[in-house]
Design a protein that fits this description.
The protein has two domains: 93 residues, no CATH class; 92 residues, Aminopeptidase. With 211 residues, it is an alpha+beta fold. The chain contains five helices and twelve strands. 26% of the residues lie in helices and 36% in strands. Keywords: Transferase. InterPro entries: Acyl_CoA_acyltransferase, GNAT_dom. GO terms for molecular function: acyltransferase activity, transferring groups other than amino-acyl groups. This is GNAT family N-acetyltransferase.
Length: 211
C-alpha cells in the first residue's frame, strides 16, 4: 500500500467538497474539517489516524450529525472513541490506475448524458423510459481526479452500467490531464473498482453521533 499522508486526504476531501458544492476543507487541530451544512451531515472531521488529535476532537463533540473519518480499520476507530459514537459500515480509500484499459459497450436501450453541477462533471446512463439507470461524478483539481457517488439503480444492475459510468469519468480525467485518481468505495462498490484496476490504499472508517 502507498503511504497515506494528510496532503493526500486533503486532495480527496477537496474533490469531495467541490463535488457536493460545500466549503473547501480547512486544516485544524491536526486534521481537516468541512462545514458541510447539509440536513443529514453538519460537519465532517478527517484525521490521518485514530490517535490523540481525533480523540480530542471527539471528546468535544456532543451534537448529532457531525462525522469523524480516518483511514483505519473500524475496530481501531471504535476502540478510540467513547461509547456514544456509532461506527458505520467500513469503506475503502482507493487509488485508480493511470487510465482504464477495460472497456464495455453500452447495452441497447440506454444512452449516456454528461452535465455539470457544483464543481463536478456528471455522467448519467439513462434508460429509454427516462429513468436514471446509473450515474457518477468527478472533480478535477490540481492534477487529482476524485470519483464520487458512483451509483447503479437496483433494477439496472449486472449490465455493465457501472463500468460504462467509470469509462466516461475516466475519459474526463484524461482530458483534464489528471495524474492521480482517488475514491472512497463501499463494500459493494469495491469489487467493481478492483476489476477496473483500482487498488486499495487504506481502510476507511466513519463514526457519528446519531440524531
Amino acid at each position: 500500500m502507498n503511504e497515506i499522508d494528510l496532503p493526500l486526504l486533503e486532495r480527496w476531501l477537496t474533490g469531495w467538497s467541490l463535488s457536493r458544492g460545500v466549503p473547501l476543507p480547512v486544516r485544524e487541530n491536526g486534521g481537516l474539517s468541512v462545514e458541510v451544512g447539509m440536513p443529514l451531515q453538519l460537519r465532517r472531521h478527517v484525521f490521518l489516524d485514530a490517535g490523540p488529535a481525533l480523540q480530542a476532537c471527539a471528546d468535544k463533540i456532543h451534537a448529532p450529525l457531525i462525522y469523524l473519518k480516518a483511514p483505519v480499520e473500524p475496530a481501531v476507530l471504535r476502540a478510540a472513541l467513547p461509547a456514544r459514537w456509532v461506527v458505520e459500515d467500513p469503506g475503502y480509500l482507493m487509488l485508480g490506475p493511470g487510465a482504464m484499459t477495460r472497456h464495455v459497450e453500452l447495452p441497447p436501450g440506454y444512452a449516456v448524458e454528461e452535465s455539470a453541477e457544483h464543481g463536478a462533471k456528471l455522467v448519467r446512463v439513462m434508460h429509454m423510459d427516462g429513468e436514471v439507470a446509473a450515474s457518477g461524478r468527478i472533480t478535477t483539481d490540481k492534477g487529482c481526479g476524485v470519483f464520487d457517488q458512483i451509483i447503479t439503480s437496483e433494477f439496472h444492475r449486472r449490465r455493465g452500467l457501472g463500468t460504462v459510468v467509470m469509462q466516461h469519468l475516466d475519459a474526463i480525467a484524461r482530458q483534464a490531464n489528471v495524474t492521480e485518481r482517488l475514491l472512497v468505495a463501499t463494500e459493494e462498490g469495491r469489487g467493481l473498482y478492483t476489476s477496473l484496476g483500482w487498488r486499495l490504499l487504506a481502510p476507511w472508517s466513519t463514526a457519528v453521533l446519531p440524531s
